[in-house]
Amino acid sequence: MTHPVAQQWFHRRSFSDGVTMLWEPHAHPSTRCNIWHIAGRDRDLLFDTGMGVMPLAPEIAKLSGRPVLCFGSHSHFDHVGGHHEFPERLMHAAEAEIMARPDRDNMIIEGWVRTDTFDALPYRDFAPERYTVQAAPITRPVDDGDVIDLGDRVFEVLHLPGHSPGSCGVLERATGLFFSGDVILDGKLLDDLYHSVPEDFVESMERIRELPVTTVHAGHHKSFGRDRMCEIAEDYIKGRRRAGCPAEHGS
Ligand SMILES: [Zn+2]
Fold first, then answer.
1. How many angstroms is it from 152 CA to the middle of ligand 1?
2. What are phi and psi of 47, to 5 degrees?
3. Ligand 1 center to 196 CA (angstroms)
4. Coil/strand/helix, residue 228
5. What is the pLDDT of residues 22-45, one digit of tens each?
6. End-to-end alpha-carbon separation of the chain, Å?
7. pTM above 0.90, yes or no
């Protein structure tokens, strides 16, 4: 099967509060990460960067000329592919080794990126079976409670392990905006990857349901409000806590 070459790789949509979402419409929804750009007075926050198969920096430059702090929610290929294009890279240290030495296994590419992952190609010679992510070592390790200051707005880093050891979200308490990565999303939560820890996932969910959130801008699928956030968190906690019940998925 030969796919056509995409005319335009990234699409974008504006939300309130200076938030813009970019995405890669020709990638399958499970690998189509939401890329979030948040405008600040002095600098902008870029939360995740997609697969890295086409340059993202020129798309971000169209949004503003300010310096960009590039945050990584976690080290899976669909979230950090474009990180190497941005000089300031913030991420939890538990993902440092993978970001410095990415391969098809540690980034979960193997088995996830295939010909049928796409309905159009980024460029003519693109070969899914050879796809890798460029190394993009963390330049500013972050941990729980750290503050990211954009000049007129601040985001708090929340370390929420479970999906991966260094998974982090960022919360703007002034607006209640929560950028969650793959920790909570309105779709299947993955807790059976090689470095997932379901017990940590439960603890992260218990923490999330107490957060003063108005809107969750997640790593995949659509954004949702606090009620839906609590419902997803409760469902996960209940499913994992059922006595004698092994990991259940897709329910
Ligand atoms: Zn992930």
1. 30
2. -110, 105
3. 10
4. helix
5. 999 999 988 999 999 999 999 999
6. 33
7. yes
